[in-house]
Amino acid sequence: MRSSNQDPSTRQPDTADFNSGRHRGQFLLAGKTALVTGVSRRRGIGFAVATKFLELGASVFIHHYRPHDLDQPWGGDDIADVLTGLEAARVGDATIGDLSGDLSDAAEVPRLMAAAAALTGELDILVCNHAKSGDDGSILDMTAGRLDAMWDTNARSTVLLTRHFAQLHVQSSPDATPRKPGERIPNTGPHDVPVGRVFWMTSGQIHGPMPGEVAYATSKAALAGITPTVASELLNLGIVLNTINPGPVNTGYLDADVTDKAPDEFRQLEEWTATTAFGRFGRPSDPASLIGWLATDAGAWVVGQVITSDGGFSLG
Fold first, then answer.
1. What is the DSSP track for 193-245?
2. How many domains does the chain fold into?
3. CB 37, CB 111: distance < 8 Å
4. Cβ atoms of residues 185 and 179 within 8 Å
5. Residue 6: inside a domain
6. 62 inside domain
7. Considering the domain boundaries, does residue 314 fall inside one?
8. What is the DSSP string of 115-142?
């Protein structure tokens, strides 16, 4: 076995470091503050992402909108229980904050961003995990109202949240100058490390059809489609954007007793899943681990990508 003469002080974090949240005795995101939207349920991806950030030492501000979950077959958690669950993952001097808001209302975006930034005085990471689901349909069912509802919640609010996040960093720059709409964003680099991270969430519409979910697929396809454009602009400010497609993650909607899928369709899905490489649906911790790693210094070189993390489902 070949030995290494690498100075241990320059060693990059390994898997054990990341899983424990530590690197050479330090938490990998200590001193950072993250806003994670759509954290209303302990089985959700947002809760798993917020938990991962807390384990890595970050302070976390969560957004939730429980009325949406209560309208779903799988229901919603008491927010006090959500916060208690997150508190169990908190380390060091990190803090936790929360705010409820319906992000289909554009006026809620600046209110949420201001509250999140006030938690520690800084905001380093934005994860737009929130999404509207339900009340969708086939192309024959499409109405302006259905399309607008999905667009407003899933796509428009994500873009506006990102705009406000970027503006926080522009305002903190000593070189910030007034711009006219449409003017190119000047490059403020080079940057040794990113000054901010943004994560969008898309869906499987990039790999195949989603029958009966035309409005949802439309809103998510928009985010995947503009990822390179927005990532390029944000990079001039030192902000890294990536979009994550987590594949089929069971956050409760794939439980047999609450799924909104027809019995025959659900049975066929279960039988097919059993033949896949891992023999299971995704778990919320799967995309959360990816996002957590991308938010650390080790993930800084991944920029402007639409990343599918689905255990090979899209290859089936």
1. S-SEEEEEE--GGGTS--TT-HHHHHHHHHHHHHHHHHHHHHHTTTEEEEEEE
2. 1
3. no
4. yes
5. no
6. yes
7. no
8. HHHHTTS---EEEE-----SS---GGG-
CATH code of the domain covering residue 160: 3.40.50.720
CB 252 within 8 A of CB 315: no
Q: 205 near 221, Cβ under 8 Å? A: yes
- pTM, two decimal places: 0.89
- 181 part of a folded domain: no
Buried-exposed string 17-35: b where 16+ CB fall within 10 A, e elsewhere: bbeebbbeeebbbbebbbb
Domain carrying residue 236: 27-172+188-307
Tokens representing 64? 């939730």
Calculate the CA 62 to chain-centre distance: 12
3-class state of residue 55 by DSSP: helix
> Which helix (H) or strand (E) is 69 found in, with range?
helix 66-70
190-249 pLDDT tens trace: 999 999 999 999 998 889 999 999 999 999 999 999 999 999 999 999 999 999 999 989
Q: How far apart are CA 132 and CA 153, in angstroms?
A: 6
Which residues have C-beta within 8 Å of that of residue 193, sequence separation ≥ 6? Answer: 297, 300
pLDDT tens readout for residues 95-133: 999 999 999 999 999 999 999 999 999 999 999 999 998
- Residue 142's identity, in one-letter code, is M
Q: Rounded CA gap, 299 and 64, in Å?
A: 27
The tokens for 108 are: 């809620």
Per this entry, what is the length of the chain? 316
